[in-house]
Structure formats: C-alpha cells, structure tokens
Design a protein that fits this description.
By secondary structure, the protein is of the alpha/beta class. It folds into two domains: about 240 residues, Glycogen Phosphorylase B (Rossmann fold); about 170 residues, Rossmann fold, CATH 3.40.50. About 40% of the residues lie in helices and about 15% in strands. The protein has 14 helices and 17 strands. Strand 6, helix 4 and strand 7 form a beta-alpha-beta unit.
C-alpha cells in the first residue's frame, strides 16, 4: 500500500483524542535512516510493523527516503519521512551497506557538514513525532547513526516538561519519556568495524539504550564484544517471513530445466560472481539446469563484471533485476534450489522465504546462521558451504575462491539431484514455526 506522509497537526489531534490505550496495546515508534521498503532490513521493518498493527498496536514510522520516493508500508502505519536530495539534505539517502540496490550515500564518504545535516534533520523529525505520537516505546533499526540521534533526543526530552500521561510508571528508562531499543542487522556492526565515522558518539548512545535486539546468538556475542554491554541487555529475537504470501505452489515448477534461484543484491560481497563461476563446474547437461538472478545493483563495475562472467557460463544465466513481491513469490515457486553464497550476512530472511515456498537451499556457513536455522527449523533441507577466508568483514582471499566455488558447485549438484527426484513438487517442509507474527510478538513482549 502506498503511504503518504501524515500532517503532524492532524496526527497530534487524533493521538490526543485516543491517547489512553488499553495496557495490552502499545504505541510504538519505529525508526530507520534508510528506505523502509528496500533491502532485507527494510522488509524486516515493514513486515514487523504490519504484524504489530494486526495485533492491535499503533505504529508510526520515521525513515529516510529520497525526495520523490513514495514507499510502500503496511496499511495503518503512520509515516513521517526524512527526505534526502532536498535543500536540507542535498545528497542521496544513506545506505547501511556500501553497495545498495539503489543509489545511496556511503557513510564512509560523509563529510562533517553532511553528518551535521543528517543529525539535524533526523533530530527535528524524531522530536516532532515523539511529542505528537507520545510512544510507549521506540525501536531503532541499526545500531548506528540515527540510533544515536534518537537516544540523544530522548535524553534531551528527559529534562523538559511533557504530558504527564506520556510516561509509563513501569518504564525501565528512568527519566526518559519512554524506553528505546535498538536492533542490529549486522551491516551496522560492519560499518563500525570498517571506519570511524561518529564511532564514539554511536558507542555511547548504544550503551545507554534500554535494550538491544539481536538476530542470533553469534550476533549477540559480537554486539557484547564490540560495545562492551551487559549480555543480559541483549536479547535474541531472530527473523521471520510472511506466512500468508510465501506458500508453496508446486504446480508452477517444471521438470526441465531445473532452476536455481538467487535473490539479493548483485555484488561481489554477496558471492554472485563466484556463484556464476561455480555453475560452470556443475556435472550436468547445460540444457537441464538454469540460474536465475533476482535483485538490483548500485555498483556498475561489479555488475558489469558479473555479466561478463555470465556470458562465458555454459548454463543459462537469467538476469531479472528487482521484482515486485508478487513476482518474487512466483520466482520462488518456479525454482527448485535457492542459493545464497554471501561472504557476509546478518540473518537472511530470503532463505526462510525460499524454504517456505518449497525450495531446497544452499547457503554459506556464516556466523550464527546455521545454529539459528537448525534450532528454529530443525531438519530444513539446507546444505551449508564453508566460505573462503575473509579479510575484514566481506572481502574473500582470492586464492581461496577456486576451492570455495568447487564446494559451492558440489553442494548445488547434491541439492539438484535431490530436487530431480520429484521436480514438479516442492519439499513440503513446514516453516510455520517462524513467521513475522511470532517475531513481532517477541519484540513487543520485550518492550513491555
């Protein structure tokens, strides 16, 4: 659904008319510095907001978008954008990854003037919405720059007068008018390890959060180590998928060719170039297997390199670009094996979506991913591939790539052979134990 920005004056009037909510119903403000309907963390925000609203909670969203963007957010969400490519913020929206599926500003490239403009614009918007919406809790996506802005605004409000009805007597945040939690999507941790932009200010703010949500245990350990916070203050919530949309439709699968599907950004850090090279190592007739790549790109040089490698591949390589949600559902259900050869990930929800749609899966064995999948979805038809040696956060050692690509090819071949036994049908694996609804419930329970 297309969501337009709501007038703050009309919004404040409506909130004042309905300020007293039942204790079981919360008013929640979700904040992200980047587009709320693109990338994995954007989907995470949008879908948890959808589930919170379905559970009866009132939700407002602050997010960064470009001047002419009209983002898609769930019906019932109140949206208050911070617009980039404007006089106040004369540069593209910032991206948590250095390579985004749309044109974005890299945090590492921001000047002090850009940072000041970013802080000023988000601080003004956050303060306005806090005073108008009077949330019971704030959730900041990414433990990064906008999280520090939100924490500082709440601290400033602690020293000011506000509506007495705003503060909940059981608030764990003391003098702040409401608690603030942050949730990591791993790209924030990568930014903090790769460069020093506003590092001390971000660290200070994160340490003063009322709580931190992590995707899995390995990420929790990294958060504790990086920020030196109490492990008891970091809670694992996991990820989810839309159990209403991502369902198997086995009639869409063909017996020949078998289809391998990749969904994500088309860039080197996602292992896409290695995936195409690994495909050339498959021990099958090129007419019996095809590779489908779904996703956008922002680095033209990296994308051109992937296209060049694909031209020399013996197997068909199909580039579908970014697709709609409906077309993504269709792509999963037309595929037999899903592959995610990334060199860096948080907790990739695309893997869960693929499993829910009846695909087998091949993924790199990155920290935290395998334990979470094996605990949350025991017996899932997933093959794990040891990644190459990684330098920094997502740069593979070149000498390790041929062996990695052979391991990837071997795992794909095994999964394709299994899929070929019943090519017209999905796996039938039950993923309903993991959904956005259950994730939203876990998140809200932490806020009470």
């Amino acid at each position: 659904m297309l969501i337009a920005a709501l007038s703050l004056s009309r919004f404040r009037k409506r909130v004042n008319q309905t300020h007293r909510l039942p204790r079981s119903v919360m008013r929640i403000l979700c904040i992200s510095a980047q587009k709320p309907d693109s990338t994995g963390s954007g989907v995470y925000l949008a879908e948890t907001v959808r589930s919170m609203i379905a559970q009866g909670h009132e939700v407002a969203v602050i997010a960064g978008i470009d001047r002419d963007d009209v983002p898609q957010l769930p019906a019932g969400a109140e949206f208050f954008p911070v617009r980039f490519r404007t006089d106040a913020l004369p540069f593209p929206v910032c991206g948590m990854s250095d390579v985004m599926p749309y044109e974005a500003t890299r945090y590492r490239d921001m000047t002090s003037d850009m940072v000041d403009a970013f802080r000023s614009a988000f601080a003004q918007r956050i303060r306005e919405v806090l005073l108008a919406f009077k949330p019971d809790a704030v959730i900041c996506h990414h433990l990064y720059l906008v999280c520090s802005v939100a924490a500082e605004v709440l601290d400033e409000l602690a020293g000011e007068n506000w509506s007495p009805g705003w503060v909940r007597s059981d608030s764990p945040s003391g003098k702040r008018p409401c608690p603030i939690w942050g949730i990591s999507h791993s790209t924030d941790l990568r930014q903090l390890r790769n460069h020093t932009l506003e590092r001390h200010r971000i660290f200070d703010a994160v340490r003063r959060l009322d709580g931190i949500m992590a995707l899995h245990e390995a990420q929790k350990a990294e958060i504790v180590e990086l920020f030196n916070v109490d492990p008891a203050n970091v809670r694992v919530v996991g990820t989810g998928y839309n159990a209403h949309e991502f369902v198997p439709s086995p009639a869409l699968r063909a017996a020949n060719p078998l289809r391998v599907l990749y969904v994500g950004k088309l860039c080197r850090a996602k292992g896409v170039e290695s995936l195409v090279r690994a495909f050339n190592l498959l021990p099958f007739d090129p007419e019996t297997v095809e590779l489908c790549l779904v996703g956008g790109y922002s680095d033209q040089e990296q994308y051109d390199r992937i296209v060049e490698v694909a031209k020399s591949c013996s197997f068909p390589v199909l580039f579908h670009g970014r697709v709609s949600q409906d077309d993504l559902v269709l792509a999963y259900n037309m595929s037999h094996v899903f592959v995610l050869p990334s060199f860096f990930e948080g907790l990739p929800l695309v893997t869960v979506e693929a499993l829910a749609s009846g695909c087998r899966a091949v993924v790199t064995e990155l920290p935290g991913v395998r334990p979470w999948l094996e605990t949350s979805l025991p017996g899932a038809p997933v093959a794990f591939v040891a990644p190459p040696t990684i330098v920094g956060t997502d740069t593979p050692v070149e000498e390790d790539l041929p062996a990695f690509e052979q391991r990837l090819a071997d795992a794909l071949a095994d999964q394709l052979r299994e899929a070929a036994k019943h090519p017209l049908h999905g796996t039938g694996f039950d993923t309903t134990a993991v959904s956005w609804d259950s994730l939203a419930t876990r998140m809200v329970n932490l806020l009470h």
